[in-house]
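U., I forgot to send this yesterday:
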Amino acid sequence: MRCTTGQQLLLFNGKDGEWLAEISVADKKACVVSLQHQSRQQTVDPDVWLIFAPLKKDRTDFLIEKATELGVSRLIPAITNRTQSGRLNVERLQATAMESAEQSRRLSVPEIVEPASFAEIISNWPENRRLVYLDETGHGQPLAGVLAGGTEHLAFWIGPEGGFSADELDALDKLTFSVAADLGPRILRAETAATAALAIRQSVADIQPTTLDRRP
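Result:
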C-alpha cells in the first residue's frame, strides 16, 4: 500500500514461481507492474492436510499461520462433539494464510475449505490418504514412529479443546486408513499440538531422503 513508482517487489501466483517486478504505475486507481525476471522456480508443496476444530479467533489465526509456514496444502475445519466455536470466516482465514505465505516466502497458499462435521469428513475420506489423529489419551504410537512409514499423502487431525469424545476416538480407531499418534506426556493446546505435529513431520521428511541416499 505504501509502494511507489520505481520500487521493486517479488510476486508469486502459486503456479509460475517467484518473479522480480518493478512498479511502473502507482496511483489511487491502479497499480501496474513490469516483470523483470524469475527469481525462483515453483516448488512442490508437501501433500499434507490439517483437520482442526475451530478455536477462539486469535488462536485459530495462530494455527492458520503456523500450518501455512509448515507447508500444509489444505486446512479443514471440523465440527466435533466438543468444538466450542462454530462460527468461522473462511475468507478472512484465507487472507491470513496468504499473509503467512508471503512472510515465509512460500510460493503457494493453502486451501481452506468450509467447516464440515465429524461424520461428513469420515464418510467423504479419499482413498489412499492416511489419517493421523492425535490421541491425547496416550494410546497412540509416538508420532515420529508413525511418520517413519511416510510423510506424504496424509492428514493430521487435531482434536478440539477438551479432546475427542470417547465415541469419536472409537470411530477413528475402527477406520482402516487411520492411526493414532502421541506427542508426549503433556496435554497440549490444539494449536500447539498442530504446530508440533507439523514440525515433526517436516523434520522426518528432511531426514528420510538423506537416509535413503546412504543405503548401499
